[in-house]
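Troubleshooting: if your tokenizer reports a length mismatch, compare your output against this known-good record of 217 residues.
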Amino acid sequence: MKKDNLWVKWVHGKYLRETSWWIYQFPPDCNWYWKKVVQTKELIKSAPYIRQAPGEHAFLIKRAYLWLLGDRPRPSWCPLLWNRTALPRHIFTSWLFFHQRLPVRARLARIYASTTEIMCGICGQEEETLDHLFLSCDWARDFWNLASQWWPILQFDASYESLLNAMKKAKGNRRHRHITYALIEAAIYQIWRAQSSSQPPQYSSKRRISSYSEYFI
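Known-good structure output:
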């Protein structure tokens, strides 16, 4: 741990006060997040790979992280999502998309059992589901058509499964496939961004395709 870090100095001065981290117990008047940090430490101490050393514990962050994750099946789309060609903000939004956890209006209404507006925030014509917003909404289709002019993008139907299968079957060398994946992630990000905007940008066939490059960066 970096002892010159301001947060580390604050923790040592306010909470630890020369007490060993591995035997430290939080006081009853501390805030909730510090309690969670200490509770996680206690959980990690029970991990089978922790080895006792003279006065200390042998500890590797990577092993602790993998142990906390447990034996979970890896989604088939992981190799498609995590590549260095895509931008972090595009990857994060696409990660939520492929997990089908983006808060589209239909999902929010189902979770909270409310009478919240469920019609598409862009076209207002159909219920805003994941498939509609990103794949069948007129605005989204126009955006995918734009992307296909900028790069030979994959062909898929208006469904999540169709898009995922098309990505798995992408052809070309590694670099070409990664550019394709990155473009799809950029499109997902921009469609979600448009849903959050009060006035989604309008596309005109008279504009040069190069002028749309801003949407993919």
